[in-house]
């Protein structure tokens, strides 16, 4: 049985191809690292009816809520049905309508909406969404939706066989909702604004504070915790907008992220960031053998030279399969080099997953292992 012996090495790879890159972090715009507290989208939801379908609507005998919705709508329009009337409709479908209300949206602005069948309708193609109120989490109406539903899928049936491309029970309406109420924002209130980092990191928060104070003056920014940064801003709305624009364009060099290895068990993809390191360990996996060794060389000067004895370490990686040497990597090879070498000798994605899982289980992988 072959063993995989690994000493401590650094990973300098990230991406699908596991390509090498420099370990130095590049400066990023502050708007890519953080957002302004209160500047956010709000989800809207509504229940409505789609009419005008070509016999592909809900089967009303199995979806009583569709019939109840039709009766209620007709009553609001002044149409009263005789008691005990049984509606057998095929051209109507009950749907849920969803949309995202962007920050600072004003009445009259249009939104794109998604219309999804909630009954047993076969298709929403060619249907028209009737006027539907869209509500927020506070149960208040923020937009009204109506329009022709656009479905991208295609369905066909011939000689008893069916063919369907894409999904026919979900459609979109571009600009199908009109904003009726604006959401109040706290950005223009008070003497300060709050920045929220996309990912909590004390080092990055400290660097953001230093960059802001260096650009706008001492005591302009102060870190509240690992995610929130308080920034003093002008009181005037016009000056505040200009200040926030300059603030978002500020270049900040983020701290190195947490070491992470992501494994996709379905596709075999492996993604590693630059912070991954390995400790000494040994893993047995079939007939594959990867040996990362360190040769210690002793350098001893002449007795009369007055120098000191020094020890140097030279690392190397030998890849073997079935006891035959196939590849020799030079000193300083990283974990990315090991993965690429295993790929070169025909190791399957499952082999790579098993090896990395075993290394993590042994405690030698100094990184978070995430399997998706």
TrEMBL record:
The keyword Signal applies. Keywords: Bacterial flagellum, Cell projection, Cilium, Flagellum, Signal. It is found in: Bacterial flagellum basal body. It comes from the Bacteria. Residues 1-27 form the signal peptide. The keyword Signal applies. InterPro entries: Flag_FlgI (IPR001782). The basal body constitutes a major portion of the flagellar organelle and consists of four rings (L,P,S, and M) mounted on a central rod. PANTHER family: FLAGELLAR P-RING PERIPLASMIC PROTEIN FLGI, FLAGELLAR P-RING PROTEIN. Belongs to the FlgI family. Assembles around the rod to form the L-ring and probably protects the motor/basal body from shearing forces during rotation. This is Flagellar P-ring protein. The lineage of its organism: Bacteria, Pseudomonadati, Pseudomonadota, Betaproteobacteria, Burkholderiales. The gene is flgI.
